[in-house]
Amino acid sequence: MNEAQVIVDDKVPVVRIIREFDAPVAKVFRAHVEPELFAKWNWPDGYSVRFDQYDCRTGGAYRIAMSGPEMQGSVHGSFHDVITNELIVQTFAPDGVADFVVLEKHRFEDLGDGRTRLTAQSLVESFEHRDSFIDAGLLEGYARLDQLLEEL
Amino acid sequence: MAPADQLSRVFSALADPTRRHMVARLTMADATVNELAEPYDVSVQAVSKHLRVLEEAGLVSRRREAQRRPVHLEVEAFDLMTTWIERYRRQAEERYKRLDALLADLPDGTEGEAK
Questions:
Q1: Using one digit for the tens of pLDDT, what is the confidence trace for A73-106?
Q2: Potential cystine with B109: which of A33, A122, B2, B113 (Cβ 3.0-4.6 Å)?
Q3: What is the predicted ipTM?
Q4: B44-56 helix and B17-26 helix, angle to the nearest 10 degrees
Q5: What was the pLDDT predicted at A144?
Q6: Does B111 contact A26 at a Cβ distance shorter than 8 Å?
Q7: pLDDT tens digit string along B57-107?
Q8: What is the torsional sign of CA A80, A85, A87, A91?
Q9: What's the first-to-final CA gap in chain B, in angstroms?
Q10: Cβ neighbours of B85 (radius 10 Å)
Q11: Can you give the pTM of this predicted structure?
Q12: A60: exposed, middle or buried (Cβ count in 10 Å: 0-12, 13-18, 19+)
């Protein structure tokens, strides 16, 4: 079974998602790095997504605008470290909200036999932020980001 | 209390190992403050302080009427946390199911090919 696991850390305000794929690490990595591919899976159906910038390499940055049934808005961040088929370290911030930033790490592990384990870790600055982050369901494709913005 | 506030309190209440241990003890049966203090090298006052944090998070309650005022675990509070994490997990899973489908259709090739 490849079902996603969620681990909520009790020492630091971190949430980790662990998921395995029946695909080689190079493909899973590409699906994160190439905007044409990333756009195809990171948002639910019914969302239109515009990449104003998506330069997924060390020192690069991104800015993505999206609109859909439940929200519209834009987010941005920087790619701090991108190591091919191993690691992406990036920030995530909604536009228009000063002083809110999430530090994200995507770790890609080659499991052999054409299988890959992805560990996606999000670090925020307090447990309160982390819990509203979970509530906001940012991984739903930011669908409930508007509610988070209201709560902040 | 708004659900988001309560969830935050639940998380921070459970961030402490002593409180987690007390919660584990209470899953077996209700217990008095003295009984809860027994395994630890701390004062009853310190245990009471931990209990107050758990009580404010809605994780435990203390029956007013009983003489011994045993501490009772509020299972629903844990359900709330489990529900929220499960929803978060489900959202991630939906996303990664879409990625599964994409990966299955992606032709083999060298990196950077699919521009």
A1: 899 999 999 999 999 999 999 888 777 889 999 9
A2: B113
A3: 0.75
A4: 80
A5: 32
A6: yes
A7: 888 998 776 567 889 888 777 776 677 777 788 888 999 999 999 999 998
A8: positive
A9: 50
A10: 16
A11: 0.66
A12: middle
Q: How far is B16 from chain A (nearest CA, A)?
A: 8
Q: Give the mutation candidate from B83, B98, B105 for the A interface (greatest A CB count, under 10 A).
A: B98
pLDDT of residue A127: 79
> Is the Cβ–Cβ distance between A64 and A78 less than 8 Å?
no
- Alpha-carbon distance of A126 to A120, in angstroms, equals 18
Is residue A150 within 8 angstroms of chain B, CB to CB? Answer: no
CA dihedral B25, B27, B33, B35 (to 10 degrees): -50
Q: What single letter denotes the amino acid at residue A54?
A: Y
Q: B93 and A4 in contact by Cβ < 8 A?
A: yes
Cβ–Cβ gap B112/A130 under 8 Å: no
